[in-house]
Amino acid sequence: MALQRISPSSSSSLDTRLIFQLCHEFGILSLQMGSQQSFVVLETCEHGEWITAGAAFKDDNNYSADNDLHVDIMVQPALKRVGDGGQDLVKEKVLVLGDIVSLKAGY
Fold this sequence. Notes:
Blueprint: H1 2-6, H2 13-33, E1 39-43, E2 50-52, E3 57-59, E4 68-76, E5 78-82, E6 92-96, E7 98-106
Parallel strand pairs: 3-7
Antiparallel strand pairs: 1-5, 2-4, 4-7, 5-6
């Protein structure tokens, strides 16, 4: 065991059991705190699609957030986290806005 090689004195079996139990409990705590209960996705769009400006994508024309944009080409996909790190795997948060070139804006 690596701990025995590092430690100048030999560790007892009680120490080994305590270390394994502590590592297991830290693993459970990290799962409960949300380190594994959300995931990251790339969101894309296609030519001709209508999307809402500012929701997950932006256009260099600086349209306001309530405009719908007609997509010509996607330059960069959006990066989203799905899940809040707790028990909810529905909440979405945009981490990085995607970038598009739009044909026109609709109102």
